[in-house]
UniProtKB/TrEMBL annotation, chain A:
Source taxon at top rank: Bacteria
PANTHER family (alphabetical): AMINO ACID IMPORT ATP-BINDING PROTEIN (PTHR43166), GLUTAMATE_ASPARTATE IMPORT ATP-BINDING PROTEIN GLTL (PTHR43166:SF9)
Compositionally biased region (Polar residues): 10-21
Protein name: ABC-type polar-amino-acid transporter
Listed transmembrane segments: none
Cell compartments where the protein resides: Cell membrane
GO cellular component labels: plasma membrane
Organism annotation: Bifidobacterium bohemicum DSM 22767
Predominant localisation class: membrane
Mode of membrane association: Peripheral membrane protein
InterPro entries (UniProt xref): AAA+_ATPase, ABC_ATPase_HisP-typ, ABC_transporter-like_ATP-bd, ABC_transporter-like_CS, MetN_ABC_transporter-like, P-loop_NTPase
Reactions catalysed according to its record: a polar amino acid(out) + ATP + H2O = a polar amino acid(in) + ADP + phosphate + H(+)
Region of interest (Disordered), ranges: 1-23
Automatic annotation (TrEMBL), chain B:
Molecular function as annotated in GO: transmembrane transporter activity
GO cellular component annotations of the record: ATP-binding cassette (ABC) transporter complex
Membrane topology, record value: Multi-pass membrane protein
Location(s), subcellular: Cell membrane
Domain ABC transmembrane type-1: 17-214
One of the Pfam families matching this protein, by short name: BPD_transp_1
Protein source organism: Bifidobacterium bohemicum DSM 22767
Keyword Transmembrane included in the entry's annotation: yes
Keywords of this entry: Amino-acid transport, Cell membrane, Membrane, Transmembrane, Transmembrane helix, Transport
UniProt xrefs under InterPro entries: AA_ABC_transptr_permease_3TM (IPR010065), ArtM/GltK/GlnP/TcyL/YhdX-like (IPR043429), MetI-like (IPR000515), MetI-like_sf (IPR035906)
Principal location listed in the UniProt entry: membrane
A biological process term (GO) from this entry: amino acid transport
Protein name as catalogued: ABC transporter, permease protein
Length: 269, 225
């Protein structure tokens, strides 16, 4: 069953084959000359990036390279010092109603899941559709159960987040983001906090999403996933994008010494 | 002993405690509302609101309650003509409730803020990332968890409030316990220890259950993470 089946627009199928040309002209996400400092630390240096509709972009790099920060700037969980970020052609608005509307269109999955600890699994998924999209309780519940079934945790719907395993919680977090029918999904190291045996159940859901044409930006250390699912891989180090290419280009023929060094360290075992 | 028992018939001791309980309940209600408002101001994205709430809390936290109570009578009532009722007793009762509420709200806000610190930042980020506005995030996600994390300090604030309600004497509420105790001591100087014990035990009987209840609730309501 398709994870995106409930979406009424052509978004799911538009992906790689049949996108409307005018929409294809402009990237869904565009970062240009983005700079950011944390105090004296220069965490993002002249970041330029375009992500087209239906594209799966995987961001890899050593810890502290700014990849999570970059991911978080895209829905303005981190502000930027200069440069522009456009989503579907629109520059990111300032804090307020407009920004909330934009965030509703951008799904986000966190490393620590961040399920609402005071709500049941189903309520976690239905909260935003009811409060932000003004969906009726009944419709939201149907949608929620549908999405939970698709990520394989429908039997846990009435439980509290703390009663679920990490892998289950992360799959709920993905369902929660999907419930808003986002144009794009951001994954900020979604498997880094999981026990090893739970990594695959989350990656499987992500693979499925990718194959259905969801536009995704994934910060991850899962190189297998990057190879299989990514259209493009971006390599970041010290706040800069050093390489961008297809998975084959990047993994088999890295250009920079920094990338060669990084790959040699993670692919030897 | 008979003289001791006679005190109970001669003076309305239970009634005096009831006045303090009423002062406490009303003040608890109003200070809770005001405290939640202050907390929301303190975490709001608007810096002037944050500053205002911070200043309020610092002001009332550092102000002796007696001064506030005396101000309620001599300042708010006598000078500023703040009046709740034509009946003297009712009027001073509500002036005392106002003073207690204004004062306790600062501590409610601080208690809630300590509960807020038990809520991980990720909860707010997840709410924002889904497109929930500040008010929705606060009421649906952050405050419910902050409340459950601050049951114990809120209980302590309630206990302090019940004891502080005796300061209502400074706001001319003559029917409450500490005023009654002074009167009784004045006329029964030979039973002074017994009179002290009556009021001390009365408060202990009232307060111990609050402590037990908040401890139990605090464990029961704790947010599992």
């Amino acid at each position: 069953m398709s994870l995106l089946e409930h979406m009424d627009t052509g978004q799911a199928s538009a992906g790689k084959t049949s996108a409307v040309p005018t929409e294809n002209d402009r990237p869904l996400v565009e970062l240009s000359h983005v700079e950011k400092h944390f105090g004296k630390l220069h965490v993002l240096k002249d970041i330029n990036l375009k992500v087209n509709k239906g594209e799966v972009l995987v961001v890899v790099g050593p810890s502290g390279s700014g990849k999570s920060t970059m991911c978080r700037t895209i829905n303005r969980l981190e502000t930027i010092d200069s440069g522009t970020i456009r989503i579907d052609g629109q520059p990111l608005p300032q804090e307020g109603k407009e920004l909330a509307n934009l965030r509703a269109e951008v799904g986000m999955v966190f490393q620590q899941f961040n399920l609402f600890a005071n709500k049941t699994i189903l309520e976690n998924v239905t909260l935003a559709p009811v409060k932000v999209r003004h969906m009726s309780k009944k419709d939201a519940d149907d949608l929620g159960m549908d999405l939970l079934a698709r990520v394989g945790v429908e039997s846990q719907a009435a439980k509290m987040p703390s009663q679920l395993s990490g892998g289950q919680q992360q799959r709920v977090a993905i369902a929660r983001a999907l419930a808003m029918q986002p144009k794009i999904m951001l994954f900020d190291e979604p498997t880094s906090a999981l026990d090893p045996e739970m990594v695959n159940e989350v990656l499987d859901v992500m693979m499925k999403l990718a194959s259905e044409g969801m536009t995704m930006i994934c910060v991850t250390h899962e190189m297998g996933f990057a190879r299989k699912a990514a259209d493009h891989v971006v390599f970041m180090a010290d706040g800069r994008i050093l390489e961008k290419g297809t998975p084959e280009q990047f993994f088999d023929h890295p250009q920079t010494d920094r990338a060669k060094d990084f790959l040699s360290k993670i692919l030897t075992h | 002993m008979s003289e001791f028992l006679q005190l109970f018939t001669q003076y309305n001791i239970i009634g005096a405690f009831w006045v303090n309980i009423q002062l406490t309940l009303w003040s608890a209600l109003f200070s809770l509302i005001l405290g939640v408002l202050l907390l929301m101001m303190r975490i709001s994205p608007i810096s002037s609101l944050r500053g205002l709430a911070g200043a309020y809390v610092e002001f009332f936290k550092n102000m002796p309650l007696t001064i506030i109570m005396v101000f309620m009578v001599l300042g708010a009532y006598a000078q500023l003509k703040l009046t709740f009722s034509d009946k003297f007793v009712v009027n001073f009762f509500w002036l005392a409730v106002t003073g207690l509420s204004l004062y306790t709200a600062a501590f409610v806000c601080e208690s809630l803020r300590s509960g807020m610190n038990t809520v991980p930042l990720g909860q707010a980020e997840a709410a924002r990332a889904l497109g929930l506005g500040f008010f929705q995030s606060a009421t649906e996600v952050i405050l419910p968890q902050a409340f459950r994390g601050s049951v114990a300090p809120l209980g302590n604030t309630l206990i302090a409030l019940l004891k502080n309600s005796t300061v209502a004497a400074a706001a001319s509420v003559a029917t409450e316990t500490s005023s009654l105790m002074s009167t009784m001591i004045e006329f029964h100087a030979n039973s002074i220890v017994g009179i002290f014990l009556i009021f001390a035990l009365g408060y202990i009987i009232l307060i111990i259950p609050i402590g037990l209840l908040t401890t139990a609730l605090s464990n029961k309501l704790a947010v599992r993470r």
